[in-house]
UniProtKB/TrEMBL annotation:
PROSITE patterns: ROK. Gene3D superfamilies: 3.30.420.40. InterPro entries: ATPase_NBD (IPR043129), ROK (IPR000600), ROK_cs (IPR049874). It comes from Larkinella humicola. It holds the Pfam family ROK. This is ROK family protein. Belongs to the ROK (NagC/XylR) family. The lineage of its organism: Bacteria, Pseudomonadati, Bacteroidota, Cytophagia, Cytophagales.
Length: 297
């Protein structure tokens, strides 16, 4: 039996199965106050519940890792991971013959490349728009690696010399903040204001409903988001020129309005020879993108 593990800043998932076939699925909410130790305790408990011996383990970790040693470089969200030998820790607790530890965006890219929106393309660039912004490149079914501890960190790409990064304007928390700030100037009958209601976090999840109902503020935010994302992606296209760009993560649930807007805006930022640019697709595997990618490692 093969095991796939997703270790994020807010959730932990373990799945057992083969490729995209999930036979066992465990999901936990991460308690940040318990740090890495709390996550490891969940994994330890789950390993003892599995009915069959584990043959291989793939891990998608939310942060930079040394893929050659299985050691975590750091986590930007959970304390206690810096320098931790996760690969060796798993080796001591299982009979797995092969263990691979990867950055979660790389793993998500692999999942979408093999079993999702990129399965008919050779070169797949994946960008995750979640609490942060990350990226991964898969060529002919293999993850591209640079020097440890990472590569394709598109969220840290600078949009100007002042230090504005793609993550600072296109992540979920950035859009949450933008909606929160916009609400202070909206009238009571604003559709966006009504659908957000009393929510004080995760406001971005209401963006699609307000957009579909014709709210002008929601339409402006989607347009701004798409434009900044297209500009950032243009640099990835000029450097890598993939066949397809797959949009994943929570913000990608904004769906077709975001995808089509990025597709329309991207050519304006590309050199003539590269226009109209790669295909733009929405991720297809949903919350299972990283676990399925981890199984595929």
């Amino acid at each position: 039996m093969n095991l796939g593990i997703e270790i994020g800043g807010t959730k932990l998932q373990l799945v057992a199965g083969e490729a995209a076939i999930l036979r066992h699925h465990f999901r936990f909410t991460v308690d940040k106050s318990r740090g890495a130790a709390g996550i490891l305790a969940h994994i330890d408990d789950t390993l003892r519940q599995l009915p069959e011996p584990i043959q291989t383990i793939g891990v998608g970790f939310g942060g930079p890792v040394d893929t050659q040693t299985g050691r975590i470089a750091t986590s930007h969200q959970i304390e206690g991971w810096a320098g931790f030998g996760l690969g060796e820790w798993l080796r001591q607790r299982t009979s797995a013959q092969r263990i691979r530890v990867e950055n979660d965006a790389n793993v998500a890219a692999l999942g979408e490349a093999l079993h999702g929106a990129g399965r008919t393309f050779r070169q797949v660039f994946y960008v995750t728009l979640g609490s942060g912004v990350g990226g991964g490149l898969v060529i002919d079914g293999q993850i591209y690696h640079g020097m440890p501890p990472g590569e394709t960190e598109i969220g840290h790409l600078r949009l100007d010399k002042a230090g504005t990064t793609l993550e600072s304007v296109c992540s979920g928390w950035a859009v949450d903040r933008e909606i929160r700030e916009a609400q202070t100037n909206l009238p009571p009958d604003s559709i966006l204001k009504q659908v957000v209601g009393a929510a004080q976090t995760g406001e971005a999840r209401f963006l699609r409903e307000a957009f579909d109902r014709g709210d002008p503020t929601a339409q402006r935010i989607v347009g701004r988001l798409a434009d900044d994302l297209a500009f950032g992606l243009s640099h990835a296209v000029h450097l890598l020129h993939p066949d397809v760009i797959v949009l994943g993560g929570g913000l990608s649930l904004t769906g077709e309005p975001l995808r089509s807007a990025v597709e329309r805006r991207l050519p304006a930022y590309l050199m003539g020879a590269f226009q109209p640019g790669p295909a733009i697709r929405l991720a297809e595997l949903g919350e299972n993108t990283v676990p399925i990618g981890a199984l595929s490692l």
